[in-house]
Specification:
434 Repressor (Amino-terminal Domain); Jelly Rolls; 2 domains; six-stranded antiparallel beta sheet; 28% helix; 26% strand
Length: 191
């Protein structure tokens, strides 16, 4: 949301307070404690039910780890590039393609699966949600319950993750795009 020239300092500061708090993944309670402000006061300040006093600004800025000027100014234009480092786990290298939101949600990853990742675990994992996979290169082995599938480049799969599942390489490395929810990310991408 862009700040308009008609936006008052009070409105802009409340908006920036909420933006900065959510960007940092902080709750109202955490900011209130850090700023030594009553939680209900902070809630009313952020919602516009109470006017922001000048003496609140330094404490709130410090609680958010920014300067008072940052709290009172318009938000800078965000850099649209996703710059998260690659992660390695269980024969896979994963590059995040989406940012981390405070509320969780779906996340996309480009994944390289090593040719050595061919053996499924004794017990296939299950979790809440759905997985979506699109194979870019190589041949992917997908186990869904008792069924085994070979997914070729250019093919996509979608499945309920309440079904026991696993994926790995068939006969060489595999490149794919995967979209998972928070539960799938914990299971597949963090070992």
């Amino acid at each position: 949301m862009e700040a308009t020239s008609a936006e008052t300092v009070d409105v802009r500061a409340r908006r920036r307070l909420r933006e900065l708090r959510t960007e940092r993944g902080l709750t109202l309670a955490q900011v209130a404690e850090r700023a030594n402000i009553d939680l209900s006061t902070l809630s009313r300040l952020e919602s516009g039910k109470r006017r922001l006093a000048l003496d609140h600004i330094p404490a709130l800025a410090a609680a958010l780890g920014v300067s008072s000027d940052d709290l009172l100014s318009s938000a800078p234009s965000p850099d649209p590039r996703v710059r998260s480092p690659a992660r390695r786990c269980d024969g896979m290298t994963m590059w995040p393609l989406t940012r981390r939101g405070a509320a969780g949600g779906l996340h996309a990853f480009k994944i390289h699966i090593s040719a050595r990742k061919r053996k499924p675990p004794e017990k296939l994992p299950v979790h809440e949600g759905h997985d979506w996979i699109y194979v870019l290169d190589g041949r992917l082995r997908l186990l869904l319950g008792e069924q085994s599938y070979v997914i070729e480049p250019g093919e996509a799969v979608e499945f309920s993750t309440w079904t026991p599942h696993w994926f790995g390489a068939v006969d060489g490395p595999v490149e794919l795009i995967m979209i998972v929810g928070p539960q799938g990310e914990r299971i597949h991408l963090h070992g």
